[in-house]
Amino acid sequence: MKTRLTYIYEGDNEFEPTQTALNDTALSLRSLKAAKQERILFDYTELPHEIRQVLKKCRDLRIRWASERPYAAVAPFSSRVSPGLHVVYTPANSGSSGEPLCRLLQKTFSDEIDCTVSPLLSSPASFISTTDSVPRLKFHTLLPSLPRLLSYVNQYICQEDAECRNHVASISSASSLDIDYSDSTAHLMVAAYWAEAPVKDGWTEVIKQPKDDQDRVEIGILAEQNRIKPEEVKVGGLLADVGRKGELTPTLFGFNSRHHPIQSTYRTQFPSPTGLHPTLQISIPQSSLSPPSELPQDTTCSLYTYLSLPSTIFADKYQLSTKDPLFLQSHNLVSLHSIQGETDLEAPDWITHQWGSNLLLELATPASDAISDSALTNDEWNITIPLHLRYLHPSPSGYRDIYIPWPVVFWACANEDEAAVEKQKINPFDRVSLGWESSFPAQTTYHHLQPSPPSSVPEDTDNLLVETITVPVLNMGHDTQRMEIQVGTAMIIIGGFMWVLWKLGLRVNAPGSAQDEPEESKKDQ
What is residue 78's predicted lDDT score, i.e. its pLDDT? Predict the structure, then answer.
């Protein structure tokens, strides 16, 4: 097992070497205010048996989880996904069953994960298929926290190890979590990211030498440095190899990165009243409507959003793929680039099998010399995406709440340097399988806007990056209402049937009909 801890602090004033103490067996940190990533690489043989059995049937497995609370994604950990649990899965062969994967997801994350397997298919029915060159299966569900995962790790990995249990408990405050497996490496990688320490004073902890001589713990205490090229990330600071080197080593290195953070922000809401055809509104401040200024002048950038919609709400692919300029301009959209998943326009929610849908939209932005007061509201550029609700199950109250995670918004910038792909491969912090990369050339760079909920929302409010819509449904709490609907439906059906019979009877008995003709006239014919 190999562990890598990376702390990213801002500016020289945030860190002093005296905040660290390294000896032959441990590194101590005191009040370090920094973002942190902990990355653990497990060998296949170190994993519990049931996990190995599932991984045997995977060519690769990518799991991404993001908190519903807003957090800062600093370089080099700047990529984002919508809140919730994302799973991307490639079966080892066409006959691989997805049932073991579904059971494992429910056991390790939540019993409420709606992952089912069709008896007619080898793949999970809840998953959606991608249109990539290598077919993959995708799944998403909202998951506010990770208590089930922590319990599973304590029971099957930590067991009676108190130090391991204390270490696992810190994941409860993580901003994001990644789990990656590929059969080409036979390693399982787990990476947790904290935008900040759980306490105001920063990170105060002791990282000890691993008990097994084969294990390794590497630590980097780094700060972003001024870069020379816009596609580059440069960091410098101190490195430690606990138990192998007795002193901190200065370092400075750079690498090409596909993902970069920018200070531009956006917010999402559903304007009231939502009705049965709610409109998702993305609001971007006027100051955030331009791509990164440090890019070369000949670089072409476009603004995109990537949505993960549950099965309860959907986008009309025919409506959004229109070429009608008036429609697109009225919503500040350019085009629909891709849509995958549950797109049936008529199906109610109770007969849909897939978890929902993903769509990638290119967004319109005003030219810098064409911004007018009429185009902006409160100095914000508003993009609207028309969506539609499905019919939902009845409820005792007559209403049901549905939850829609905020989309991600980013600038995708074309890079003509074909060698950039090879340079990006040396990035030790690269993150893949975010959902939209296959829609762009490999050398594209992404510059992520930061989600920013309204300042009027209390800090302790849950689901800050998840919108809630209250949907009216059949009220099962009122027996009289249900009876009225049943009787009314039956009367309409019976009445319609009687009307058809009446019309048929009029036609049969109408003067001049064939049966009313005299016998002699029939003989003459």
Answer: 95
